[in-house]
């Protein structure tokens, strides 16, 4: 099939490469880092704030924990945990240097750089000791990892026994009317608007395409279990537009 074949979806008229080579993905996020937060809020209708808070709340943090925020991006999840005094220290890891720079500017402005250290690193080779984290969060980043199963095994490695994991990721709704509206928005409005604001049309064509090609919820739960995690759940949010995946490392 070709991109012009009616059986192949396009995104704002583009047929993006959904390959997950780390250098390609890091470069793409580097290019859109300056407008990333604005577009997150705009394209989600502000729902991204609600989704992140739901994920943090499911960790049941007490304020004493050490947390890893993997694929931290511009640090919104990490900042939420520290601002609400739900974690003692949060380590933010991402492989996009420019996203981390944006996050670092936020932290310096808030005086929180000391409690949220940022490290450029690969989700498949985490720069953290085994059993060193009470909890791990990943917000809208796992689908961009070249091999999610390797990353999940790394997450299980760095979690303490009994430690909790919360992952947010986009999905495709299954209810027919919602699915039809969502796909129309994802394939037509989001890539064009995102490309216009960010001036990087390829990135905002890749993002919705990567969602449609990502592992379905039931299969992703199986991946969590295969990584050695327990009590795995997939919780649909906003009509199944987003799923919150929660799990624990066995005590």
From TrEMBL:
<feature type="binding site">
    <location>
        <position position="94"/>
    </location>
    <ligand>
        <name>S-adenosyl-L-methionine</name>
    </ligand>
</feature>
<keyword id="KW-0949">S-adenosyl-L-methionine</keyword>
<dbReference type="InterPro" id="IPR029063">
    <property type="entry name" value="SAM-dependent_MTases_sf"/>
</dbReference>
<feature type="binding site">
    <location>
        <begin position="122"/>
        <end position="123"/>
    </location>
    <ligand>
        <name>S-adenosyl-L-methionine</name>
    </ligand>
</feature>
<feature type="binding site">
    <location>
        <position position="74"/>
    </location>
    <ligand>
        <name>S-adenosyl-L-methionine</name>
    </ligand>
</feature>
<comment type="similarity">
    <text>Belongs to the class I-like SAM-binding methyltransferase superfamily. MenG/UbiE family.</text>
</comment>
<keyword id="KW-0808">Transferase</keyword>
<keyword id="KW-0474">Menaquinone biosynthesis</keyword>
<dbReference type="Pfam" id="PF01209">
    <property type="entry name" value="Ubie_methyltran"/>
</dbReference>
<comment type="function">
    <text>Methyltransferase required for the conversion of demethylmenaquinol (DMKH2) to menaquinol (MKH2).</text>
</comment>
<dbReference type="InterPro" id="IPR023576">
    <property type="entry name" value="UbiE/COQ5_MeTrFase_CS"/>
</dbReference>
<keyword id="KW-0489">Methyltransferase</keyword>
<dbReference type="GO" id="GO:0043770">
    <property type="term" value="F:demethylmenaquinone methyltransferase activity"/>
</dbReference>
<dbReference type="GO" id="GO:0032259">
    <property type="term" value="P:methylation"/>
</dbReference>
<protein>
    <recommendedName>
        <fullName>Demethylmenaquinone methyltransferase</fullName>
        <ecNumber>2.1.1.163</ecNumber>
    </recommendedName>
</protein>
<comment type="pathway">
    <text>Quinol/quinone metabolism; menaquinone biosynthesis; menaquinol from 1,4-dihydroxy-2-naphthoate: step 2/2.</text>
</comment>
<dbReference type="GO" id="GO:0009234">
    <property type="term" value="P:menaquinone biosynthetic process"/>
</dbReference>
<dbReference type="InterPro" id="IPR004033">
    <property type="entry name" value="UbiE/COQ5_MeTrFase"/>
</dbReference>
């Amino acid at each position: 099939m070709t991109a012009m074949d009616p059986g192949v979806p396009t995104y704002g008229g583009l047929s993006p490469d959904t390959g997950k080579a780390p250098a390609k993905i890091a470069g793409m996020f580097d290019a859109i880092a300056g407008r990333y937060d604005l577009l997150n809020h705009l394209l989600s209708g502000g729902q991204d704030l609600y989704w992140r808070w739901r994920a943090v709340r499911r960790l049941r943090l007490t304020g004493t924990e050490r947390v890893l925020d993997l694929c931290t991006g511009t640090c919104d999840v990490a900042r939420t945990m520290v601002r609400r005094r739900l974690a003692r220290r949060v380590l933010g890891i991402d492989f996009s240097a420019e996203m981390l720079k944006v996050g670092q500017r936020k932290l310096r402005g808030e005086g929180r750089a000391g409690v949220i250290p940022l490290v450029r690193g690969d989700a498949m080779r985490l720069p953290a000791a085994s059993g060193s984290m009470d909890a791990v969060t990943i917000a809208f980043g796992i689908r961009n990892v070249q091999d999610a199963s390797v990353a999940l095994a790394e997450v299980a490695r760095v979690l303490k026994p009994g430690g909790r994991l919360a992952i947010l990721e986009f999905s495709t709704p299954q209810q027919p009317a919602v699915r039809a509206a969502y796909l129309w928005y994802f394939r037509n409005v989001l890539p064009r608007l995102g490309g216009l604001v960010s001036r990087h049309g390829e990135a905002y064509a890749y993002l919705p395409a990567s969602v449609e090609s990502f592992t379905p919820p039931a299969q992703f739960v199986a991946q969590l279990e295969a990584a050695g995690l327990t009590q795995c759940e997939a919780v649909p949010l906003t009509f199944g537009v987003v799923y919150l995946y929660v799990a624990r490392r066995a005590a």
